[in-house]
Amino acid sequence: MRWEQKVQCASLSDVGFRRRNNQDSHTTMLSPDAETFQTRGHLFIVADGMGGHAVGELASQIAVETIPHVYFKNRTDDIPAALNAAILAANTAVNEKGSQNLDFNRMGTTAVVLALGPKGAVAGHVGDSRLYRVRREQIDQLTFDHSLEWELIRNGRMKASDQSLQEIKHVITRSIGPEPEVEPEIEGPFPVWAGDTFLLCSDGLSGLVKDAEIGVITKHLPPADACRLLVNLSNQRGGPDNITVIIAQVGPLPEGVAPQPDEIPLQPSESDPIGWLWLGGLGAAALTLGLGVLYSVQQEAERSRGIVLSVLSLIAFTFIMVFWRRHARSRTADTPTPSVSTVLSKAYRTASAKLTADFMAALAKSESDMKQSATSEQWPLDTTAQETASAAAKEALDKKQWPAALKEFSKSIDLLMTAWQQHRKLVAAREAEAKEKAAKEKEANNAK
Questions:
Q1: pLDDT digits (tens, 9 = 90+) for 333-356
Q2: What angle do CA 174, 179, 182 make, to 5 degrees?
Q3: 443 falls within a domain
Q4: Is the pTM of the predicted complex or chain greater than 0.85?
């Protein structure tokens, strides 16, 4: 990645529908000049505090303040090592704060950190806050959840399909602060291509919105619009937790600058269907050649030679496929830095980010359901603006102009969500007023 590649980024944090305060914290720090970019790159952090009320909020805030301070102050030119040291320093800061007051005992926070620099993308994390990358029509989860669910699956003790996993889904196995020591996981550097989009989030988003949905929305909407729609969908689905998301989209290479090898998408790549078709065609040709020989001869000896040729053709095709796959992997594999213990940089989960008719139908239903609630419950909705956006979305949908439809549905849902939140506040105010009135009447009756 180059300093001249501008990064378009946006962030949004929301308390959700069931929490009284927001225990998530986040920060975005773009390098102010080329020199800083060369040594440290751009930095993005999301932290999800734990410990209840102000305790979790304090823990996450300490993390997002300590990590950048230590990271940018570090003099080493090894970004993974600097990131690792910064997360360890945050753990020490949160742990020491927790030990000073019994009310803060064992407070903690998750943290996911992304550094975008000249050698690519480096991620560091503790806990189950996630980092995703959206590239072309695919979304990859680049961090491994430090949760009991993921650990049991990795160790082969449970399968992803086991229903009992739902009971331990949010039990995390590693976090910043509760213990004097913690082991961060450092990933990268990952090669960065022009157009790559990175998304950091707390589990208030990833627990309610599917990877494929995150990928589609992140790919096809500007970062600020994508943040709002993702948060709105999380809240529409119950909003049981705080929701925080940062989106950073890497711009094109500067004009006249030749790309480096790791800045050029391989053709064909492992995910490129053209490459697989080419290989499949080669294999089919080899097999056809062998079978042609087999059935064009009459004598037993020559037919035996035809069988041998067929088998050899299949073996040759297999070796070609294996060699090609390994060669592609060797060119795209990201090598972990020797100075910090890391996991090989690869996607832990992958989903399609393709905009489909099914996704658009589901989004249209979400909007329709909200509109019905708005009408029946009399939300304070800007009806004119919402109906305009909704009509434009449906018109684009009828014409199968799905990106345009997505943009208009996003506007409509945002207007509906704003009205819903205002309605909730009005209802809460009325309930509080009714309780206060009842308490005063009770007090007056007791006085008599």
A1: 343 333 444 444 568 899 999 999
A2: 50
A3: yes
A4: no
